[in-house]
Amino acid sequence: MKNITYSKISGIRNLTESTYVLRLEKNGFEFKAGQYLVLNVPGENKAREYSIYSPEDAPYIDLLIKEVDKGEISKELKYLKIGTKVEITGPFGFFLLRDNEQKKNSHFTFVATGTGIAPFHSIILSNPDLDYEIIHGVRHGYEAYDSCDYPEDLYKLCTSREHGEYFFGRVTHYFKEKGIKKDSIYYICGNSGMVNDVTELLEKKGIIAENIRTEVFF
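User: That's the sequence. What structure does it adopt?
Assistant: Structure tokens below.
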């Protein structure tokens, strides 16, 4: 188990009514893009895992958090005062880019639903020369969290409950209509149903297991 690091909340930025970015002081906490940490409020037994949203070299740690109906800590964190002390443990996880693939200038396809975009936000901002595209599935267009951080032609938003300027349908529908790049390496993060469905679709299209990496959020 990693040692506990004590940090303080330095900012809260609301993205929607139920989704926000929690900013913490870094205090020497080092991580690799794609990893997560465990966050707890001292004195409470409500520790939760959150993928790190900020780039590796940022002087702070950002976490992308969505309030969950029965999630005590996701609702509590939003209303804590600036300067409140929290405990962070980690980093954990192996949902990382591989050095040899970056050196080969590989193409990456990142597939996410909802806040499952968090590790990709960190990976992309930490590697500005990366060759990639990102497919993001949400219910409504306003859930395109910080989409301005990606070039417009590389960020593909799929909305399942709102017709508009975006692709209407789930990410699986997007791939069935737009096609699958056979020479890409796929990273998939989000709810288990989507992760399983996209993995199955990719395998049926001939993408080898070695080029499919997954992280299940819930």
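The longest strand covers residues 4-14.
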